[in-house]
């Protein structure tokens, strides 16, 4: 065990703009606010009696609404954010007089305090550097990443800057395009790193070591910032093991790289995917990790569920070079536009300065309603009102239980989808065109000839499966390019009776190399449809693929709009098409 | 009347980053979403059944809660945002299934549609350019300004750029410092323009014509962007007349300057201030405009109240060079973090692209709750449910009435404060130290000697009075610098029995010149305290000033913390001290 040391100084990477932001020195002033009876003429705050909202209220789920456990909450809870709670301690106070007033950039104190405890004690109980990380509330991970980019990169303009000044950002070969579109307009190099089923590769051709060791300085500075989704990677669904994390982190130490870890799906990890994959594919598959306790050699999170999750890069972040982005988008709702950033204190301080002149703080409407739902009513002395007495508020136990229930919900969808995919990968020559898809194993059939149409890795977390279409096995492949077949398949699937809209792989390619391969992939989400539709819709999809393999020509599949749209989406990142969450 | 022409092309001012953002071309894709029965595997959206909120609700004011009219709403209204409204038209739909889902960067369709109508038909019915302006929702005006700065300026770094590349921003001599702190870290020139009681000066020494005509190119490019608060200017409370606007706009046309108009106080205009000032100060004062109909020669706003307000620069924006920022911070609550940007369509398109990779959209919690309060329930065909039938929703009439009521509330506070100030500007030598402040006119007193301690202009809009302390008239002025006296006064006022915290003028100075004069001013807000406290608190304040004028020395007023804090605040912009709204 190495000695506990403070985080390293990253200020050599602060952008010109971020370095210029002046530090806060307001503590000296606080005493004046605390003078009893002081008449405050100084603030430019509107009077709270002029806020038209007297209360905010909501009907909300109880934490056990979603399985694994079987009980349903037929009776939902009520939460009320009152106009004035009368509680003096700001860390305990949840009311409209404070939540709808101007606040501090760090976030609404009650929510900030809860999330700081959750982050430090439960989500990442073993951050190695001295003192541990701090947090700052954000308007979701796109906002958080935008601020991290503002902090750690300078715009590079070929019309006025030297190539030696050009900075770069590392990312996976296939990635969440909205993040790439955040950095690309700044003129930065976007450097793709090779990936496998887990996510980013540390070694091998095109892996991180290869990219950093053999960096061509004629392209600019060696990249110093990494953007990565490590759990339920978007679009591939991979999850990075601790072993892989250690290798990548060591390279980041060696080459002085900051890691921005964007993990909206961290609580949607599916241990069953390893088991299901092994069951379907026999012993040739690597065994999965099963249910592990990742904190067994450190401090426990206090919850078996959290202990079982593959931990963040923060858990091995001895130097404080990890900036982690968390969001309520997948755990509460995307429209929350609420999340938090976790990093070493000096980085959080700079991000707070940036927040002061951009978003100021997330909306008090969402901050107070989420605080009231999760934290609930508290006594003025900080002891929480017991469930029996009052019943409001999930508290830490309820919040963790909700996260576990959500995982269960998405895991069942994932299994429903992947079972159908697994059982219909092959076109069997004696199957007639009208035969129906079944979920029975195909092994019992008398097979004359079987052609594999697609392959996939069971997603170990997240919201989608990444499916490789084996276009070279298509009977028309000798007449058409794989890319042409791919476009035709996409249009074919949208037609009756298939009626399926899938995410083209080209939307996620971050390099020319991956763009050249991207037409071989589609991303299919099990999240957005109704739970009971996942299986029948996926059946419709595989029937559609099968019908495509049986086509004798591509007549009627030349859709100019689709080609234009796919091109347009690729350019744009598709934010409006698939929703910013794609 | 000149012919109606389209707005001019401003793309030569787009920043390198903003120019690089790719245009959206998603329209081609929409038809696929509309295919009946399509199974959408493409989007990465969470399923709405996993949002823990079943409803959002609120108890809200009725529009007539605040005077001018006398009826009080003892019974507040209830608004409910349901989980699923079942209304197909997105412009009419207000529910959690849509509001808490990923949305488009422009804003929640129902709210966007309402605000677009309000902006185009009621707030600015006479925008001269062809087609009129578009709007985009923001997370408040700080966010809106930050995005405008991102669009229209390039960072200038002396370590790598030429001085000729340095861009500049025009602002008033005294300004809202958070805006200045948005541009200063980018290395831009911040250029102060002289101001008077109205606001920015067009002509005269240091006025806009002087600054632009005599620009010294050795400092960089001539400034092409203006940041201005034209109504209830912060901190001076001035309001710019239409005549002045025309002169400034003509200069902006001549020198190709974009105007960013930040008007959080536009509905808090106080026609009575002109009258009160004239009454107190006799006929030597210029007469105020009285109640005018500013739209009498154009299209009416449809509301006498809105017609009576000094209109935006947009009303004379023939070329489309005005970007206006509106916010709910002062009309609903600062914690809303919700506002909108109004500008020519091409500018709104670029700002939308910026929004996609930063804030994405304001929180759905606030968007849906404000939409539900203001717009209320609507029939599926777009006709609103009548008040009688349902009673929910303010609709356009209620929204305008609420704005008028708010104006009344702040206007009464302003009058309460300024009457006390007006009647206590003078130290009367035969007044004993213990005499009480009265609201009677001092004219009746038998005066032996009177010394004026301070002066002010009645604020014509907004939330504060800007008071000039006539430090040169202080008996100790021969022993101490005015600056020293100013700091001593600030500390003196915080002590018993005065107990007043005032905003030091130095917090608002944007140039060395104005910083050198700033200690002569304080900004005192009538907004944040309880209504019934405004008069007694202001009495305490003027008593404090009087007591300061009667001091024989400055003993006990050397407060290092205060000096440090004031310096620190000046550096920082004071966002955390006075709240971002200071």
Automatic annotation (TrEMBL), chains A, B:
Q: Which Pfam families match?
A: Aminotran_1_2 (PF00155)
Keyword Nuclease attributed: no
Keywords of this entry: Aminotransferase, Pyridoxal phosphate, Transferase
Offer one example of a GO biological process linked to this entry. Answer: alpha-amino acid metabolic process
Q: Does the keyword Transferase apply?
A: yes
Full protein name: Aminotransferase class I/classII large domain-containing protein
**UniProt cross-references to Gene3D superfamilies, sorted A to Z:** Type I PLP-dependent aspartate aminotransferase-like (Major domain) (3.40.640.10)
Its required cofactor(s), as named, are: pyridoxal 5'-phosphate
Which GO MF terms are attached to this record? pyridoxal phosphate binding; transaminase activity
Give the record's family classification: Belongs to the class-I pyridoxal-phosphate-dependent aminotransferase family.
- What sequence ranges are listed for the domain Aminotransferase class I/classII large? 101-379
